[in-house]
Amino acid sequence: MGVVVEEVDEGQPCLACVDRCPGFTGHEWRYTCQHCKCPRQVHDIYNENFVNIRDRLGWKRQDDPNSQVSKEDTLKYGYTWVPPGLSQDKIEDYMDQLPNHKVPKIGTPGEKYRDMQIILQLPKQDLSEDFCKSLDKEWEKKEFRIFRDLRDQVAMGIGVVKDSTTTTSCFTCKGEIEEGELSVFASKMGADVCWHPACFVCDACDELLVDLVYCIHNQHIYCERHYAEMIRPRCPGCDEHASYMRLIHNSACNGT
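The line above is the sequence of LIM zinc-binding domain-containing protein; the predicted structure tokens follow.
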């Protein structure tokens, strides 16, 4: 299936300029506002509908309830996202371990936090060429698809929350995780590697990995944005990752 992105940005207020900006109007190719020149992500962008993270990634949905929670059940629990495969008590246990302002509870700052992290950590222009403004040549599109496919197959995964079967240590903080304690596992890092829920963060930006989506690089975990920037340069103008040759030659895009 294709990547599903339903972001609303047009006319949204700038969180930096406040009333000095009449609302976001996108530049023709830069990821900035025509009015205030601030980056797109500084504006109050939001996702129009309920976000199933597999839809955003363009991954096939899974019927297994241990791999996915329905929209109806998620909202019934009072959240915009919950880790799959857990009882309601376990879900609450997981949420209690996160910073309060980052818990994706409906009607709280945590709901907005998740919304923004989806937009920041999983930028739509990294997920599908349909959202790229500067892939003009067929070889550029082919290069993008190769990067995307290799990333999805080799580096990207979705963490799983479950009870630890042994007493071990958290990969990030090195603190103890007791047997039976709720932990996050990332299979691409190894079957026995796990984290405290609040420690499952991007190694670059230190933010919670939204909906447990991670990428591995040199045995560390990152959000997709920062993983991509270690593999391919990101243009400071259009916020798209690109070949080195395109960055060198496209002076209009890189702001020179």
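Note on the example: The chain is about 25% helix and 10% strand. The CA atoms of residues 124 and 130 lie 9 Å apart.
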